[in-house]
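Translate sequence into structure tokens.
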Amino acid sequence: MQYIQPDKIRIGVLGGGQLGRMMIQNAINLNLPICCLDPDPNAPCKNIATEFTVGSLKDFDTVYAFGQDKDVITIEIENVNVEALKKLQSEGKKIYPQPEVIELIQDKGLQKLFYQERNIPSPAFYLVQDKSEINQHAAAFPFFQKMRKGGYDGKGVVKLKSVDHLENAFDAPSVLESLVDFDKEISVIVARNESGEIACFPSVECAFNPEANLVEFLFSPANISKSIEAEAEAIAVKVATELNIVGILAVEMFVTKAGKVLVNEIAPRPHNSGHHSIEGNITSQFEQHIRAIINLPLGDTGIVRPAVMINLLGEKGYEGPARYEGLDEALAQSGVYVHLYGKAITKPFRKMGHITVVDKELAVATEKAKTLKNSVKIIS
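Result follows.
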């Protein structure tokens, strides 16, 4: 039996956004102190972290100094200084996910080569150094061009239909990824602890906002066959195992019209596609991540009730102090759970919160969620 004093384990989180905020809310149940580093002095974690430090996540000295008195360091965003984390790891600090995993995720080209080398199914691709090299692959249009580094939440991605669209292309090292004729986009979140124990959450189906390229709705469970579910889970487990990751890993996948499952992208942290698990699953993704990084037994990932999640995004045309319309009507309904992220300023398409709707029947939760999507607005 392992002897644990949770309040003696100091966990450092690089990032103080909504993912860190929800991580802290779950850590409180285990009496775990969570310390956050974020460049924004008014980040969502500011008022609920055990300690909150303002500083750059990309600066070596800042990240290295932050990690000195922590037992375990984790992330809620990938854009961090990996070299500082490598040094901390060499000095005996536990860094989960490991620095080499974060380094791989920071470069979409390395991600694609990782899949290719390990026979993990993924869309066909080409690597280019700059805009001028795209013409070399003219016969294979159309593509999604994805910048190898720096893209996040739909940024750094552009659709190129033909050579006539190259004026829209990025002049930077990129991945040219062949378009996939897909039927659905799904996500599987898998957790792995230091002992090697692995647990998967059931697949969820994602529907994206076409303008912002962000998840608009998430449906749990995904409407897929048992064989597709098994294949998606097996792929997620393989990716996590090959990475040797400790922590949570979100594996976003396409289900093609021909019934194939292809990996799109991965994220080594709690993820937007797992927010529903707070109310919809026995263990939430945030609790599971904490369990994994301090090597506790992983929790039961089973579905309590079908769930639909809606991202609450800032309305187009509004920027300034956030005001919320329709929350009173939403909260008056049974099975509706509102999560606001503590961001004082709204901007178009900024993630300001989410709503999860649970019901015995997914169809009922879906109809309720669609109504709420039209009635709850974030303006200024």
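Note: The chain has a mean pLDDT of 94.
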